[in-house]
Every structure is written in structure tokens, then in C-alpha cells.
DNA sequence: AATCTGACCAACCGCGTGCAT
DNA sequence: TATGCACGCGGTTGGTCAGAT
């Protein structure tokens, strides 16, 4: 698959990579590291531009790349993070072990986005969505889901604005955090509060939406991690220091999702909001 | 069997950012 | 401060494949 090989006017090869080229690149990086990408093709004996080499390595040849279909946990993580971060594929990829930004972007565009859209249109035509074997996403009424999408987008924009305004204040305390963690912190702080309060002002859209749209039964352990815990009435034994906000104050340290379920340990408000957008059933 | 069509995904392109000079 | 370079990111393209007609 991929594009057929061709050469541009500078004699730089373009298009699909051959196994021989892959082997050369891997061998060179194993021995010397990638160093300067621009110089690498010459040093490795490749008729490629450095950019192409870098992309090939990052998206395909890197030894820690995980191939194969996305797991439901990975899907859930991507949906969650995309809802929070938007098209920040690199940041999302950093929380999905072994997946590249390109792969996640493709997966989103070809699978998840379409699934979301089709799920919405299914609802619009009053078809009862069925979960016959494959993972599907149900939304509440299109108008409600659209409303939530707008809310999500506005919150994300707000987060970005606040980030720029507050970055100097946060720098000292967040020096060791990644960009995505900063987003999460913002989300979990004023932005989260703002979101919660705004939804409360609007008549508890989220809470109502969740109560109206939550499945009547949990379909798996995985989805249980996505389900909204009772907002403000958490009986969880591991969240003993919840602040007295409407919004849950979580452990903000995100960890890669591969080994544990903690990737789904988003704040209650986040889970609640997410579940207002998505009922994300995971196949048993 | 031939053709059409849509899905998939590797790869390319353009732009923004950070850093060195 | 201004400039150029290298890199990374996100959007887009286009080749291949599989299913439908």
C-alpha cells in the first residue's frame, strides 16, 4: 500500500518505501542514532529527504510501534482525549502507548469520526442503535449532542486561552508536567469549574443528559471506568481528599494507558461530560 | 468477469515553533 | 533583534484493496 515510488527533480525518491530502504534506515539509526535528520539520508545511503526518513522512522520503523487494531481501551482513551484536546494528535499519541500521531489521526478520521456521525444520524432517524457485536457509539438526540459538542469546543477554546493567560503562574508548579498535563490541570481547575457551573446554570444539562442516556446496564468493566460516578456524592474509597467543589478534583497525573486502567481515571465531571456525549459501549 | 466505489492508511506538504548565530 | 535552520505537527493526498454492482 502507499504511494508508488517516484523521483522529484532533485533526485530525491518519494513514495512508498522499499524493504531495502527500511533496512538501511533501521541499520543506520541502530548504529548511529538519527542525529541530524537532514544529513541522515546521505550518511545512510538513502535517496530520501530527511523529513521522509524521520516520518518513516517515527510512524513505521520505530521498534516500539504497536501494530494491529486498536483495542477498546485505546478507543476510549482517544475519544476522551480528543474531546478534551481536540486534534492534538501528538499529545493524544503520547498517552496511547505504541501508537503514532499519524495512526491515531487516521483511526479517528476513518473510524471514530464516522462512527460518531453515523451514530448521530441513526438517532436522528429514530433507529434504535444496536450493539451487535461491534463497538458502537450512541448519542442522545442530535440537538442535545450538538449542544454538548459546542460546549466541549467552547471549553477547549477557553482552556487554551486560559493556558496562555495563566502559563506564567502555572510554570512554577507545572514544570515537570507535559503540555497535555497542563491542559488537564486547567480542565480540572477553573475551566472544569466553569464548565460545571455553566452546565448547572443551563439547567444541569449534563447531569440530566447522563441520567437520561446512561445505559440501563453496564456492559463491561471497561465501560464502568467510563461511567460517571455520582457527581458530588462519590463514595469512592480512593478519592479521600476531594475538594468541596461541584467538580471532582482528580489525580491530575496522567499515565500511559497501556498497563493499567488509570488512563480512564478522568475526573467525575469529565466522565460525566463525556458520557453525556458518548455512550461508549465496549464489547464484552 | 469487469467496473465502480468507498475505505484504509502510508506518505507528502505547508506551516509554526524553538534554537543557534 | 533579526535571520536562518531543523524539527515537529496537523491537514491532505493518492495508491491499494475489498466489497458492491
Give the low-confidence spans: 1-6, 124-150, 164-186, 189-284
Strand-residue proportion: under 5%
- Please state the oligomeric state of the protein chains shown: single chain
Strands, total number:
2
Structural class: mainly alpha
Count of separate structural domains: 2
Count of discrete alpha- or pi-helical segments spanning 4 or more residues: 11
Mean pLDDT: 57
Strand order of the largest sheet: 1-2
Order of helices and strands: EEHHHHHHHHHHH
Shape: elongated
Helix content: 40-55%
User: How is the main sheet built?
Assistant: 2 strands, antiparallel
Determine Rg (CA atoms, Å): 22 Å
| CA-CA gap between termini | 33 Å
Give the helices and strands, then pairings:
Blueprint: E1 6-7, E2 13-14, H1 19-32, H2 40-44, H3 50-61, H4 72-85, H5 89-94, H6 101-124, H7 142-174, H8 179-201, H9 205-213, H10 221-226, H11 268-277
Antiparallel strand pairs: 1-2
Helix pairs in contact: 7-8, 9-11
The protein binds a DNA duplex (21 and 21 nucleotides) through helix 3 and helix 6.
Write a structural description.
The protein has 284 residues and is mainly α. The protein has eleven helices and two strands, in the order E-E-H-H-H-H-H-H-H-H-H-H-H. It has two domains: 6-61, Homeodomain-like (Arc Repressor Mutant, subunit A, Orthogonal Bundle), CATH 1.10.10; 72-277, no CATH class. Strand 1 (6-7) and strand 2 form a beta hairpin. It starts with 5 loop residues before the first strand and ends in a 7-residue tail after the last helix. The chain binds a DNA duplex (21 and 21 nucleotides) through residues 1-4, 14-17, 36-38, 50-52, 54-56, 58-60, 87-90, 101-103, 105-107, 109-111, 114.
